Amino acid sequence: MRSWFFIQYHSSMTFDQIAIALLGALAAWLSQARTDSARRWAPVFGMLGQPFWFYASWQADQWGIFAVSVLYALAWMKGLWVYWISPRPAAGVGTLEFPPKKRCD
User: Any stretches that span the bilayer, and where are they (predicted)?
Assistant: First the structure.
């Protein structure tokens, strides 16, 4: 095991650990983007990382992490629904507002 500052590197770092780190960080980064066009990709990368979370927590018998992974998957599914699946109103279509009439009594 080698140590670099506070990070310890194990030569046995597996693909799932690398995928969790990269996909999770990318999803978190994109979720904070200023534009919808970038932010909509956060749930895609978040969901791509979920199978690795499930596998890693299952293999390590970390049932609490597995349960939290299910909750995260549900949250990412909501993001997929909002940004990719649900119908959006056509551009330029809005609501009309009729202000109340002034009464002269």
Answer: 63-84
Looking at the structure of the chain, the number of domains it has is: 1
Considering the entire predicted model, what is its pTM? 0.73
Q: From CA 105, how far away is CA 86, in angstroms rounded?
A: 48
On whether the CB atoms of residues 35 and 28 are closer than 8 A, the answer is no
| Rounded Cα gap, residues 10 and 95, in angstroms | 58
**What domain range is 40 assigned to?**
13-84
How many Å apart are CA 28 and CA 57, to the nearest integer? 20
Does residue 104 fall inside a structural domain? no
